[in-house]
Amino acid sequence: MNKIKDYKILKTLYTLKSFGYKYIDSIDTQNSYNNTISLPNDLNLLNNIVNNCTLCSFSKHRKNVLFSYGKASSKIMIVTFSPTELEDSEGMFYTGKAGELIYNIVTKVFNYNIDDVYITSLSKCRVVYNDNNLTDNINICKNYLLKQIELLNPKIILFFGQNVYEYMIECDNFEQIKGNIFEWANYKVLATYEHMHILKNPTLKKEVFESMLKVKNFMESNNV
């Protein structure tokens, strides 16, 4: 069993090496993807790596990779959990009713042009929820998102979804923290419900709207 596991790790490392990754000396075989790669300090190069990524089983089912939409100079970053089926099919964010909901928040609540907000997702490929390697797959993509955040250095990050919050913050207190701006890794963050969840539970719209007003006030007070 250990030989099989070691082979999988080596196969992964050689795949990463083909993308130009550099490795640190020590590798934790319990979590072979964590802290083993050095991603480029360039969004275009990172985008190219992500678009050619086949490191997890989600890549077998995707039609498109969704890296981001919007200006890299934006001070507001929106993070969803995964491209929807329609976004995966069309290869762009803000499609369908779920995308329209976030579009309306940006344009009608924040009074921003849609291009002035940077949107991305934790998983760059559409998530297959019954995948046996769901958590491992998401953690692979998490490295990409962390690098995007580092390179963009946004003034505020909006996590749309409890799953986004828990994977990124590694904490299960979503119900206590949602709707409030807090500090994480030197960034201001607000977590709220996933846009798909809001559509299925319209009663949540008022709560989410109030949360977005907090974001708007934060942006105005900080000239974002």
Describe the structure.
The protein is of the alpha/beta class and 224 residues long. The chain has two domains: 1-38, no CATH class; 43-221, 3-Layer(aba) Sandwich (Uracil-DNA Glycosylase, subunit E), CATH 3.40.470.10. The protein is 45% helix and 11% strand. The protein contains nine helices and five strands. The chain has helices spanning 2-18, 43-51, 85-90, 96-109, 134-152, 162-169, 174-177, 195-200, 205-221, and strands at residues 76-80, 118-121, 156-160, 181-184, 187-192. Strands 2-1-3-5-4 form a five-stranded mixed beta sheet. A hairpin with a 2-residue loop joins strand 4 and strand 5. The chain is globular. Residues 1-8 and 22-36 have low confidence and may be disordered.
Secondary-structure blueprint:
Blueprint: H1 2-18, H2 43-51, E1 76-80, H3 85-90, H4 96-109, E2 118-121, H5 134-152, E3 156-160, H6 162-169, H7 174-177, E4 181-184, E5 187-192, H8 195-200, H9 205-221
Parallel strand pairs: 1-2, 1-3, 3-5
Antiparallel strand pairs: 4-5
Name the helicity range.
40-55%
* pLDDT averaged residue by residue: 87
Shape by Cα distribution: globular
Radius of gyration: 18 Å
Could you give the order of the helices and strands? HHEHHEHEHHEEHH
The CATH H-level homologous superfamily of the largest domain: Uracil-DNA glycosylase-like domain
Counting DSSP H or I runs of 4 or more residues, the number of helices is 9
Number of domains: 2
Beta-strand level of the residues, as a percent range?
Answer: 5-15%
The main sheet orders its strands as 2-1-3-5-4
- Poorly predicted runs of 5 or more residues: 1-8, 22-36
The N- to C-terminal Cα distance equals: 53 Å
